[in-house]
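In the laboratory, one determines a bound structure by crystallizing the protein with its ligand and collecting diffraction data. In a computational setting the workflow is compressed into a single prediction: the sequence and the ligand go in, and a structural description comes out. We illustrate the idea with adenosine-5'-diphosphate.
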Amino acid sequence: MSAVQHCPTIKLLPRQLADQIAAGEVIERPASVVKELLENALDAGATRIDIELGHGGMSAIMVTDNGVGISADELSLAIARHATSKIESVDDLLTLHSLGFRGEALASMCSVSEWTIISRQPASEQAAKLSYQLPEQVLEVNHALGTRVSINNLFHNTPARRKFLRAERTEYRHCDEVIKRMALARFDVGFYLKHNGKQTLRLPAVSDDIGRSRRVAQVCGQNFINQSLTIDYPHNNMRLWGWISQADFSRQTTDLQYFYINGRIIRDRVINHAIRFAYQRVLPPGRHAVYVLQLEIDPVSVDVNVHPTKHEVRFAESRLIHDFISRSLRDALGSGDAVDVNAMNASYLNQVTPAMNELNQVAQMPAHYLVSESRFGNVLSIVHNRFALSQQQDTLYLIDLVKASALLVSSHWIRSYKDQQVKSQPLLIPLRLTLTEPQKINLKQSELLLIDLGIQLTKTESSDYLLRYIPNLCRDYNSDELAINLLSTPLQDDNIKDQILTVLMETALDLSKLNLAELLNTLSANNGFTASHEFADCWRALTESSLHEWFKRLP
Ligand code: ADP
Ligand code: MG
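The predicted complex, in structure-token form:
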């Protein structure tokens, strides 16, 4: 059965539809609109921002700022997709000082709402107005300096999205949270919020320590401020400053944790880990710190263009950032009787053996590798793109991720193959493979077996092959390499388990996609898992003698 019976023709999507599709990425709910409009106001240099919401922002969102404004002739450009005044080349991303840069927020929100923009620049007497009713026609109106954007009836034309909106209170809370988050990044700007006509938040601009603490108290509570520490750590061209809770003030949830990089709120695993690591000695398990922290770093060393919502980042040197943050916080929190894990770790590493020097050249630690709650403790880094170096109290472990993953995948794979249950997924773009003669023979002989294993290849006219399906289980492996490796020896049903294990060990594994926490948990589970004795061979507690043995195995 073919999905498309008639001959399809390719058409360019109408602009409105393309914008609506793009809006799916950035505009999820009223709070996302509020966030984007606040960012625009801040980028425009506003010192006061007024937000008015109707019904949690679902019926109306109006953001008014006193920033530089938009000129009448640029108003329609502002709402065009990929139109921005903030960058001109991709290099500008490296020195980004604005919150926006993608030039799609206004286009996106306007495509799914009834919108109006009014703006006046200092040079003009009159303000310019553009709205959804007459989107081609700029009108002259009276208005104060700055910009007012109204976004009404969000998702009125995309019912599928509208269905995902929650109760008014919930949507309001999300908007309120967005505003508070921004307010903690920009003490020099006043934020005022009205909901259904009632003033619900007043955060006047402040410029001194007392004022800043008052604002933090308004968001995180007076109790927090009363017992928090204020910190300020400069280090080379970085600075970390803000408010952090001490050991006797913690929460069950992570809701009062605010971390900013150059004024942008960030949720980042490297940073979370650094902070948790610092608190680990002073907080009991299950308790969470409260903090408002600002990290100022050279924009060159952080990439914010990772995700459309710009909440995620990529650091040029994540290890450095991680250590700077955790050291600063540990220093602030005071070590007391607690052991300085890092110092202990360092001296331990140094004394053990010269081979340990290799560990000091480990690759930087990418975010997803950081795991702290497992039998193996904290994963400190990845060595030779294969082994996780982990620390649990004063024991270091080296864990062979490639072998452990291969064992895990092969045992699941074989089990589901025996049950005729292998789930496979189509490759979005089929991969073209050129096979050698022996590989072609192997393919011919074991085509059915391969299909049962969840792998499908089809022949092309040019006598190449297209790899179309691979098992879901193998998605972290390099697919074409996997297929080629499988075809390189004749597959035999009676020793397929060993064959598959070998193939997996030989195939490149994308460690960055690996769910390390899950893998470590499986490794720690000693019972209930058939291959546990094999798993035991995947990790070693490091002692001087075992180190030599392990380093012999390093590639
Ligand atoms: P971005 O912020 O990524 O540039 P937007 O779609 O949010 O994209 O905005 C497009 C452009 O409209 C901005 O680059 C800016 O020039 C202008 N603009 C938007 N909002 C404002 C505002 N409140 N004040 C002044 N200019 C604005
Ligand atoms: Mg913007």
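The chain has three domains: 15-203, 209-336, 358-555. Keep in mind that any predicted model is a hypothesis to be tested, not a measurement.
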